[in-house]
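Hi all, posting the design record for the shared folder.

TITLE: backbone redesign
STEP: 1 of 1
STRUCTURE INPUT:
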């Protein structure tokens, strides 16, 4: 099993970025076409996040990379909460893609892998046929799309949860096998890509404020950028005032598999 860590900000450049931007443009054009033709389409609505205050908003925007990304620990520090995206038949804004209210954003570029995109293509095909269309109205009315929208929302929510737990399990399993393989002499960390054991020099960023766990110890959720996963960090008394985004050098304490896999770490002295 190969384990690869990639940052979205690192791959969103070059030819990949050009293709992604072209796809976004096509989705905006599709929504505009639907508005001009009075064609019912299913759109994505993503309202803006809610910052802690105007000052934190300016700090977060200033911390973005050259291609517009903010590190997760920075977003966690300056944002109170992010409102969930949803489907709508109306041309609502998509804040994260810069699509304004009144224009709308329609996913239309992947009919081979998303059924909802195929539904859009059926609507577009009917409109482009014009007078040659077999029926006067489009295949789906607005109320049809609203009914489908409810089912699609539930399906995607379940799919997202399954994907998250699937990935978390195999991330945890890989770390478990890696640590066990080194201990048994089956893995030589000096021969891996990079020439070092990534578990020897791990650092973490806190995602929330510390809280007391059932064992009466202070812990905090963390992200581990070098291995692309999350875990829990047990805090010593001297670090109980750690702010969101605090960086710690950490070492692995425990690997728990099962239906709720978890990596537990301690602060490395």
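Okay, here is what came back for every position:
SEQUENCE:
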């Amino acid at each position: 099993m190969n384990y690869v860590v990639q940052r979205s900000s690192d791959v969103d450049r070059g030819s990949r970025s050009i293709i992604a931007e072209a796809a976004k443009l096509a989705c905006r054009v599709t929504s505009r076409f639907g508005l001009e033709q009075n064609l019912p389409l299913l759109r994505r609505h993503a309202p803006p996040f809610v910052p802690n205050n105007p000052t934190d908003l300016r700090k977060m925007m200033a911390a973005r990379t050259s291609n517009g990304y903010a590190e997760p620990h920075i977003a966690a520090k300056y944002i109170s909460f992010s409102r969930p995206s949803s489907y709508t038949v109306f041309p609502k804004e998509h804040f994260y893609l810069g699509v304004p209210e009144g224009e709308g954003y329609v996913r239309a570029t992947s009919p081979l892998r998303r059924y909802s995109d195929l539904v859009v293509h059926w609507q577009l095909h009917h409109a482009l046929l014009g007078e040659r269309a077999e029926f006067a109205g489009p295949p789906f009315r607005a109320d049809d799309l609203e009914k489908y929208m409810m089912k699609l929302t539930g399906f995607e929510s379940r799919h997202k949860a399954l994907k998250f737990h699937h990935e978390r399990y195999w991330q945890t399993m890989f770390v478990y096998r890696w640590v066990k393989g080194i201990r048994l002499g089956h893995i030589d960390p000096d021969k891996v890509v990079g020439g070092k054991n990534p578990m020897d020099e791990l650092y973490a960023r806190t995602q929330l404020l510390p809280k007391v766990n059932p064992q009466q110890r202070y812990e905090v959720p963390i992200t581990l950028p070098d291995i692309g996963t999350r875990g829990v960090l047990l805090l010593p008394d001297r670090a109980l005032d750690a702010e969101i985004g605090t960086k710690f050098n950490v070492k692995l304490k425990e690997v728990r598999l099962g239906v709720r896999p978890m990596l537990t770490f301690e602060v490395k002295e």
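COMMENT: Residues 14-168 form one domain.
Let me know if anyone wants the other runs.
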